[in-house]
Specification:
alpha/beta; Rossmann fold; Dihydrodipicolinate Reductase, domain 2; 2 domains; 9-stranded mixed beta sheet; 6-stranded parallel beta sheet; 30% helix; 25% strand
Length: 361
Amino acid sequence: MASRKLKVGIVGLGGVGAVHLEAYRDNPRIEVVAAAELDEKRLATLASAHRFKPYGDFRRMLAEETLDLVCVATTVATHEEVTIACAKAGRHVLCEKPIAGSIDAAKRMIAACAEAKVKLFYCATYRFLPAVAKARALIQAGAVGRVLLMREQEVGGAGPENRHIMGFAHYPKGTPGGSGFGLVDHGIHLIDLFGWLSGSEVETVFGRGNISGDAASVEYLLMNFRNGALGHLLYEDGTFPTGLPGEGLFSWGSAWTLSGAYVPPGAWQAAPGSIHVHGDKGALRIFHYANQLFLTDKDGTRQVALEGRHAPGHFTAQMEACAATLLNGAATATSAEEGLAALEVLMAAYRSFEERRVVAL
């Protein structure tokens, strides 16, 4: 049983779906046997390159294929429909982030999978990036002492007319949404990650997020954790960067810029994304996509050696965790309940701005 490959189907072969597909290529634990995509040209091209059975209708794929798990990589607006259909077909699901467009939708997805006795995994891929996983191990080993502050910001761009706004297909008009590196589409990763790194739950939040179709502005989120740590996110892609020459890094993993451009492994990044973790005994600078990690304490600053697959290999690592659960009975990979918890924090930020107050969870 342990040597059998996990038979996977993918629904949605847009940007992130294509990355999933590429990451699973030639993996001894995973076999993509089918995929569904509405864009006929894209579907035909990818099916030829990756040798899977193509479907224009995901429901037909569910009816005709024997699948262990379906990766839902469609737009957020369709996550509920696709996931519930997979559950009714008896298929386990790995759902991309955010898990849903609303808390109620996420709860319906979880309930449908529980009723059908299938697992619903949440695609918290940042947890599987080598620099992030190593940072968590260092934190748990006491390398930074008590965590005081975790922060990330993505600020820059080429002016307001060049914002990388996600369309209504992703986030329906009037719902939480915005740019690809905004609070909903990107920050949801960090909401999940900060709790995972600190080993604590969010207690209160204050923030502001963009609404799909409305004029975009600066987005931010302050999270107070039960262990006393503070999490801070800051996003704005409608301005200009303040980085100086020489402050960049070579990105040893795949990455994406504020404009949505893809950066291949080995390329120079003038402003690589990074996560800062500050403790009372040390601090970490985590270049999650560039696949580099630095520790600073009383002995100075040093680079930490990393093992594992850089991006997009973190997609492979997450799917392998799902395979270990389904084929070998290993501890469950990231659960839907964790995706729901991140979504609840996100939605509380919107409520806090609307009501002009700190919101408790």
